[in-house]
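Why should sequence recovery work at all? Because a backbone constrains its sequence more than one might expect. Tight turns favour small or flexible residues, buried strands favour hydrophobic ones, and helices have their own preferences. The token representation captures these environments compactly. In the example below, the structure is given first.
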């Protein structure tokens, strides 16, 4: 539609705490109900080298080893989520990184209280999404379909 934001893709990881707490469906259904489209999905155990690549911007931070240890500690659900303004919409739905600062109604505001096990990761900008998505999905792993709510206009 004219005047609407461009379609974007973003990477979401339901982190090991989310998977181990049985929250994959809860998290996924929130994005689906919002109108975002899941265009790739993979339940996977992240190897150490991928974790280090994913979090390379935090390499110098004191919490880097903890971050890598945690994200490789159990499977994650990797999702490529598409929609208008998907990067900002998903981040708003996830809530503040520090769950004690996230608003009720957000994923972390409703489901998390700790900083490292904070249920979800999502790309923080379009360039970050463009860097992160290929770490998890090859081009041929994306599917193409129309959600029913894309056909209103
Ligand atoms: P995520 O969106 O996966 O990106 C980087 C992660 O680092 C972030 O979520 C938090 O889980 C984690 N993080 C950020 N700051 C700290 C910190 N000070 N101590 C431990 N973990 C942190």
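From this structural description, the recovered sequence reads:
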């Amino acid at each position: 539609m004219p005047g609407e934001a461009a379609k974007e893709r973003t990477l979401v990881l339901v982190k090991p705490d989310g998977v181990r707490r049985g929250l994959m469906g809860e998290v996924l259904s929130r994005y689906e109900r919002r109108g975002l489209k899941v265009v790739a999905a993979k339940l996977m155990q992240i190897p150490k080298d991928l974790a280090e690549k994913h979090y390379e911007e935090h390499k110098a931070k004191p919490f880097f080893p903890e971050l890598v240890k945690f994200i490789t500690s159990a499977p994650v659900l990797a999702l490529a989520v598409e929609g208008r303004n998907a990067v900002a919409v998903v981040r708003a739905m996830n809530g503040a990184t520090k769950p004690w600062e996230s608003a009720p109604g957000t994923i972390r505001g409703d489901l998390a209280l700790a900083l490292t096990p904070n249920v979800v990761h999502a790309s923080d900008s379009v360039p970050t999404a463009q860097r992160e998505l290929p770490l998890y999905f090859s081009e041929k792993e994306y599917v193409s379909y129309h959600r029913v709510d894309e056909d209103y206009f």
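A few observations help interpret the result. Strands lie at 7-14, 37-44, 76-84, 120-122.
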